[in-house]
Amino acid sequence: MIGIIHIFISVLILLGVSIIVLSNNIVHAAYALALTLVGVAGMYVLMNAELLAVVQILIYAGGVVILLAFGVMLTNRLRGEKVVTDSGNKWIGAIISIVIFLGFAYLIQSTDFGAGEIRTPSDQIQQIGIAFLTKHLLAFELIAFILLVALVGAAYLAKMSSDE
Amino acid sequence: MNEWMSTYYLYLAALLFSSGVFVVITKKNLIFILIGVELMLNAGNVLLAFFSRFDSSLNGQIFAIFSVVLTVCEVSIALAILLNIYKKQRVSNLEELQEVGNE
What we know:
The complex is a heterodimer of chains A (164) and B (103). Chain A has 164 residues and is an all-alpha fold. Chain A has two domains: 1-85, Four Helix Bundle (Hemerythrin (Met), subunit A) (Up-down Bundle), CATH 1.20.120; 119-164. Chain A is 76% helix and 0% strand. Chain A is built from six helices and no strands. Chain A has helices spanning 4-22, 26-46, 50-75, 90-110, 124-133, 137-163. The longest helix of chain A has 27 residues, at 137-163. The termini of chain A are far apart. The mean pLDDT of chain A is 85. The relative contact order of chain B is 0.12. Chain B is an all-alpha fold and 103 residues long. Chain B has a single domain (3-89), classed as Orthogonal Bundle (Helix Hairpins). The mean pLDDT of chain B is 84. In chain B, α1 (3-26) packs antiparallel against α2 (30-51). Chain B has helices spanning 3-26, 30-51, 59-89. At the A-B interface, α1, α2, α3, α4 and α5 of A face α1, α2 and α3 of B.
């Protein structure tokens, strides 16, 4: 069951993550984030979560990364300074993140997940759509409202800064 | 489902989360820190989608989709705040940032 596609997706994610961790250039990191997010979308496809994979590519790789790139252009490039940033606390950060990773690894190794039986239905996109409009209707409407409020608020905040 | 397959996704999620923590701790630029937060949120979403496979009600996937939308809200607001901080105080390095708010 270990296909070449799993190795390919792991390499994609590892490459993106290591560029983000090692590089000090914000633009490189933003596009490496896009690479990582596409890799995660590939993982979703492997997990049979196709709708989530499409949402991931549309919203994250299409929206959030472009937003971050705009953020870089609107802040650092104004003064004509380089898009390179400093990094500090390297040892503390490395120790903390390695400890967190090892803690997760210990938990994963010591947990018996049992004989996991995959129960996702074959018509899952249809079922997710029905669930959004019946069982999760209130949450669905609320999240749409929150998105609207957040975007209006973000536009207002950004305009406030350009008035001065 | 064999043992290797179930831990593959979990290890990748652990890797995403711990590198997100590393980025948040070490980098000094606000946009870089947002990138680290994105990595951590993605690790959470991967776990939600993974464990949702064993549940026929698909609630995990639905929660992950909600979490993606909330992340978009968070990023847009955070970038607007960042833009304000930068315009008013001319800072993008966290070490130079001394106060947030009206002058």
